[in-house]
Fold this protein.
Amino acid sequence: MPTYTAPLRDMRFVLNELAGTERLRTLPGCEEVGPDLVDPVLEEAARFCAEVLLPLNQSGDIEGCTLENGVVRTPRGFPEAYRAFREGGWTSLGADPDWGGQGLPKSVGLLVEEMICSANMAFGMYPGLSHGATMAIEKHGTPEQRALYLPKLVSGEWSGTMCLTEPHCGTDLGLIRTRAVPEDDGSVRITGAKIFISAGEHDLAENIVHLVLAKLPDAPPGTRGISLFVVPKFLPTEDGRPGARNGVTCTGLEHKMGIKASATCALAFEEAKGWLVGRPHKGLSAMFTMMNEARLGVGVQGLGIAEIAYQNAVAYARDRIQGRGLDGTKAPDRPADPILVHPDVRRMLLTMRAMTEGCRALCAMTALEHDVSLRHPDPEVRKAADDVVQLMTPIIKAVCTDTGWEAAVAGMQVWGGHGYIRDNGMEQFARDARITQIYEGTNGIQALDLVGRKMGAHAGRYLRSFFHPVLGFIEARMEEPAMEEFILPLSKAFGRLQQVTADLAQRGLRDPFEAGAAATDYLRLFGLTALAYAWARMAEIALGKEEDAFYRAKLATARFFMQRILPETSSLAAKVLAGGGTLKAFEDAAF
Amino acid sequence: MPTYTAPLRDMRFVLNELAGTERLRTLPGCEEVGPDLVDPVLEEAARFCAEVLLPLNQSGDIEGCTLENGVVRTPRGFPEAYRAFREGGWTSLGADPDWGGQGLPKSVGLLVEEMICSANMAFGMYPGLSHGATMAIEKHGTPEQRALYLPKLVSGEWSGTMCLTEPHCGTDLGLIRTRAVPEDDGSVRITGAKIFISAGEHDLAENIVHLVLAKLPDAPPGTRGISLFVVPKFLPTEDGRPGARNGVTCTGLEHKMGIKASATCALAFEEAKGWLVGRPHKGLSAMFTMMNEARLGVGVQGLGIAEIAYQNAVAYARDRIQGRGLDGTKAPDRPADPILVHPDVRRMLLTMRAMTEGCRALCAMTALEHDVSLRHPDPEVRKAADDVVQLMTPIIKAVCTDTGWEAAVAGMQVWGGHGYIRDNGMEQFARDARITQIYEGTNGIQALDLVGRKMGAHAGRYLRSFFHPVLGFIEARMEEPAMEEFILPLSKAFGRLQQVTADLAQRGLRDPFEAGAAATDYLRLFGLTALAYAWARMAEIALGKEEDAFYRAKLATARFFMQRILPETSSLAAKVLAGGGTLKAFEDAAF
């Protein structure tokens, strides 16, 4: 069975040394955020994840959820673990103190989320979805709605869902058919079918708060006619307890490739009582205000899987003996050397490590901007920080989930045939990780978001929020010999990115098909350049501290990234520059 | 449920037009191999695979195999399908007529294998393993062993296995512990534990012929002390029928990520009666003589999965409507356009298509050389053909299985959330394909085979068997304007490959670690260049025939390959040239 030790040293590094907690402490409500406050939280989370959540990961996968007469049972141990999770305060970590939350910044919350996803990603779906519902009501609900739902959601007594997808539409929500008919008392009656609803029905919480996209009778067609509603499973009584059963039932559970302990429900709404959240017909934009955070969260799922896959691949590579080192025997006292000595195994492990630590760094840097964008007193500073978040969100979602997947797959490969066997747990990581590249907007949609929405917006303002700091960073270090091995490859990749961006901006303006044809390769090129920037910054921190093994490993990993991963940017640039002609020319009938 | 239509037009193209059946017909026993003989075989195989094997693919995955009291049951329908398979003559297609086979060349057999792997890869494991056992006995058995076992194996009445792996060793077979103790009657008693034995026990055939690697008492240590034995499940009676039960039992079935209908057995040999096959202590080299064919076969598994994943991704992309074309509405009469219009979807589909058709071409070209290497009367011609097979085998195994995996994964992505749902069948392709990158030598081992064994062998003779024809092909077409768009990128990639090969040969000679550090990237670079060569050859055939949609699509796909896939070679070359320093420098303790 896989093991997991939270990478606390690296988490503290990205939080305190890379992103920097000094800047965090200038924010209202974050004055106390430092090692004294954060370390115990991280350590307790690490313990909880390793001791409570991890042991349920494999059994949860094997057992899955069951549906009987509309009742969904989560796997054995899940209800108890959820209760402990709730009582440990993990549902309220980042929530507003007004509703019973602990008010910790995203910069800390993301690290805890990573641990949860490493230990038991399927479990993490339940509180994760509640978080989205909390935000929706906090941001768009009436004072009454907030007072009714938020304390329950924050405490974890109730959980939440996001009901968007329908059988015939997911990406294109303009097509949804679920209807909301207003009643005289200000409520609505909701009727329709939703699918792929994570945590749509389960036995962990006493009530479930569905946030539902539906159309009012007078709705304009398409995405401009979608409204957001709150639809509780049990209608709250006067004193805020779960009362009568509402007209929403679970009609089916999906059999999925992975995250089998997460109940993915088909829900039937039959004249279910609901209430408008936010303004009529503005439901989609209300949803989109939560999207950045949800997408960062999915990125962190990928990161979490990458970390545990790496740890267990390393453990196997140390333990398994097979063959001899190509440059000589390494363990003469044993019948063979540990496979860790083989260069191709080291290549796989270092690729996993460099991508994982790079993604963690990128998440931490972006989480800090996220905190600034929400909390800084100066609206100009908030806006500048939000620009970074807007730009980096699709990149983090796609790159971190690709990393989770690739690391899980590489982890299987290190394990050889044993990686393909269920009992060893490595293949579960791959099956679980796969969904992160698909949901919350496929990674192809992230790429379109980057080239379609973010690239051109505000005359390139989002882009500049990345390009200017990177350029400044490079220029300030051109004369530093110790940084040369990092700055040169970074500046080469950055040059490619700038060239390709200029080319694509022109072509994409003339023909949006060209932007779409380049999107995925462009996002990857952007992501690798952002990782190179993060690695150069990390290397700079580590330089001069080589007596400490942690910093030595940082530098060695940074070198590996620059020499063996970053060259991918040359191909990506060439693919983007090749244009979309061959995609367009292919006849539809010939596929 | 997925559908499958065998790509007969493309199969005939690679067989007749690309590889060329004229050359095949010059070989003894192949004089009649032409459309009149081959087309009905392919058509009947296509029908059988679509009608009999495909309907059992998903149910076999869900049901899996069961083990009770040492008896393994395959999923419902498998015994009947196997009987029909056998009676249809599919087990004997390529076998020697001396033993009841039909003597068809590999060039035809591989196409049928591809169809089987598309329709039901797990089913194909059973006859596939028999094929390996047949070859082992045919090549290394005594006349008595051949007379006893081959007719039964060829007819499919009996099936075969290859028992190599043990719990503590797979790649490094020098470590095996299974013992063979000679008896006075010339037989041996075999004792030991084997794992991961495909078709090790099942209910499809009346007897199972195990080919077992074990050590004789006087065996030298390591791989030079391994012998090969035949160990039947039931000891054959005087008249060749299954008699007394031998001391080999199935002690466990693995729960795997995929190919769940294939029984992956742990076998216990307890003083099981067996007989030496070939010479004592030469078992590993006997196994290796079969390895090329087995590895080509695994490559074809990848190809088969890639094809069916592509077909079903295209079907969904035509059917699913979501959003509007970026360059304008394409289906104004419908609420949205089919997702086939989206450039990123087309990019995924064309990548799948270009890699799949390219791999099929490479397999066909290599299968022809394989046939020549076995059948040509002139030993010099045989040797030259064998050089190509030796060189291309690790490349085909790795590139085709990577293609199977990547296509299956891309197919899921085209399906979005629905691709993650078991009932839709797309995720099964990914789970099934994953093992092909691992077994029969992981793809990392293929890469080591290429740089370690094939690159330097015979002063580069294997390499020249590829480099010379490609160089000749390029040079002969430098002045042809119509070929320029294919020849230029091919020659660029080929130049990179030559440069990198020279560099690596030097560095690898000085330090084998350097060869190992480059191996995987080098193999991929080599594979893409070989695919570019295949695509240029296919484009040349298609040029001038553009009135036919088939050739138009070939040309369009060739252009896509050159412009959007082949640029990967630039990064791969850079990674190889970066060397293995960063892999070596990383401290073991720091992983």
Remarks:
- The CA atoms of residues 177 and 382 of chain B lie 37 Å apart.
